[in-house]
Amino acid sequence: MKELLTDIDRWQRDAKRIVLARVVDIEGSGPRDPGAAMAVNEDGEVVGSVSGGCVEGAVVTEALALLAGERQPGVVTFGYSDDEAFAVGLTCGGTIHVFLQPLDW
Amino acid sequence: MSIYETFSVRLRERTPVALITVIDGPRVGANLLVSPRLDPLGSLGNPELDRIVARDALGEIEAGRTGVRHYGPEGQTTPEDLEDSPTVKVFINSFAPPPTMLIFGAVDFTSALANAAKLLGYHVVVCDAREIFATRRRFPMADEVLVSWPGPLFEQRGASLTSRDAVCILTHDPKFDVPAVAGALRTRVGYIGVMGSRKTNAKRLERLAEVGISDPNDLARLMSPIGLDIGARTPEETAVSICGEIIARRTGRNAPSLRDSSGPIHR
User: Fold this and answer.
1) Most buried pick, A29, A51, B245, B260, via CB within 10 A?
2) Distance of residue B66 Cα from the nearest chain A Cα, in angstroms
3) Which among B80, B95, B110 is the end of a domain?
4) Which domain holds residue B191?
5) B27 vs A73, B32, B108, CA distance in Å?
6) A86 Cβ partners below 8 Å, 6+ apart?
């Protein structure tokens, strides 16, 4: 989380809308532990990571959908319990639960 | 200052902090910020829920743990209370280095204590001056195994020890435990326990006095003989008695049985 602060500061100075995504739970082997965080701004710029690169693209898509009002804040699950496991699954075979919320507080 | 601004200040200043967020339930995205000895900031949507979660978060910060917890809408935690009631899932995101336990002496009790300390979330350092005993093979559960005398180790790390950390001296050997006690007393470490029979303890106090350690305030910091009086015999039971004492010292309890005390279990 700490590694995100400088970029978030800059985005906030530029009045960019931001989504914060954090790993809240993992099942099986996960590349990053709960607390791993990334932030996405309205232009699709990214800082941080929630996996070893496996699901970041999908998180950006969800984050932009959240900013567009197309989805609500909440937990998104990636991995074998996901229908789209092959599209955005984890190579390690684990499952990660990522919580997305707008950074407006 | 917004919750986020306060949060980022605490992260930058390395103030232990937990950012607590509702991830499922009536107020998804609601945040509460908790740090030891500071007023909580924000709300999860119910004052009683805030109070209970803030209390739990302090324990999570102590242990340096991050994870999801379930509560009733008003902070209920027991299964009976949660039955038939909607649950609030909260993510407690702790930002605190794990506490450190320094164990002096690579003896029989050390592995059991190191295991128990890992269970509680400690970064465990085993230290002994004897190279043949202080080996990784004997203490695979320890985060670090160091061959060193206490003096140099405290010189190196003493300044970073805080009230969350613990020093356990299990050597029973005056030439090792006297400098270990002396080194520990010069730090702000929250718990100092020293193993030994009452006789060993009496002799040790004499030796400590010989090297000028006799200030009652210093001696009052020593938990010696180490551990709660639960009749522990084996290394494993002793480890539980030591860990119980560490928790009780931190929370300021006398550690009686719950049956024999009254009032709420969680305060």
Assistant:
1) A51
2) 6
3) B95
4) 100-251
5) 10, 12, 51
6) none
Side chain identity, residue B195: M
Q: Which of B28, B11, B160, B38 is closest to A35 using CA atoms?
A: B11
Helix (H) or strand (E) holding A79: strand A74-79
How many CB atoms sit inside 10 A of residue B265's CB? 7
Q: Are the Cβ atoms of A105 and B12 closer than 8 angstroms?
A: no
Distances (CA, A) of A28 to A84, B89, B94, B121: 18, 21, 22, 20
Nearest to B95 among A1, A24, A75 (CB): A1
Nearest beta carbon to residue A5 from set B8, B21, B68: B8
Task: Count CB neighbours of B260 within 10 A.
Answer: 6
Contact A2 B12 (CB under 8 A): yes
Place of tokens 């917890």: B69
Of the partner residues B4, B12, B94, the one whose CB lies closest to the CB of residue A103: B4
pLDDT digits (tens, 9 = 90+) for B190-225: 999 999 988 999 999 999 999 999 999 999 999 999
* Count of domains for chain B: 2
- DSSP per-residue string spanning B101-158: EEEE--SHHHHHHHHHHHHTT-EEEEEES-TTTS-TTT-TTSSEEEE--HHHHHHHHG
Residue B108 lies in a domain: yes
Q: Where are the beta strands (DSSP E) in chain B?
A: 17-24, 31-34, 41-42, 67-71, 88-95, 100-104, 123-128, 144-147, 166-169, 191-194, 222-223
A9-60 pLDDT, tens digit per residue, is: 999 999 999 999 999 999 887 778 899 999 999 999 999 999 878 789 999 9
Same domain, B151 and B205: yes
Which residue's structure tokens are 């699950």?
A77
Q: For residue B10, what is the nearest residue in chain A, using CA coordinates?
A: A2
Domain co-membership, B105 together with B190: yes
Q: Are residues B35 and B128 in the same domain?
A: no
Whether residue B75 lies inside any domain: the answer is yes
Could you tell me where the DSSP H helices lie in chain A? 5-13, 56-67, 85-88
Under 8 Å between Cβ of B57 and B50: no
Cα end-to-end distance, chain A, whole Å: 16
How many Cβ atoms are within 10 Å of B166's Cβ, its own excluded?
29
Say what the ipTM of the complex is: 0.90
